[in-house]
Amino acid sequence: MKKIISTSKAPAPIGPYNQAVLSGNTLYTSGQIALHPETGVLVIDDIITETKQVMENMKAVLDAADMTFEQVVKTSIFISDMNNFSKINAVYATYFNDETAPARETVEVANLPKFVNVEISMIAVKE
């Protein structure tokens, strides 16, 4: 049985999908971009600020499911320019403990929604 997870503290979906779905003890999040949840404006001043907004949006989705970054087991990071990897990684690292960080893939893509520079999705498990 699946439960739809939704919060006004993260951007509302702009298509036929939900912010996250909880199936059993596993949470599957949709990708988050740097949309400010209250204004709907993209926060893309620089890659550091953009990545922080993405992670804060993801934090809000995890919170809505009563979960934390500590429960994330897998992340997928999509970036438009691999030259931004180190800056994105530096921000991302502040949300995880090195000892328990999730598995991850980072992929450079030709384009992302709204032409943003980074999109991140996660899978988390309640124990």
TrEMBL record:
GO cellular component: cytosol
UniProt GO molecular function: deaminase activity
Keywords: Hydrolase
Family: Belongs to the RutC family.
Tree of life domain: Bacteria
Record protein name field: Rid family detoxifying hydrolase
InterPro entries: RidA, RutC-like_sf, YjgF/YER057c/UK114
Pfam families (UniProt xref): Ribonuc_L-PSP
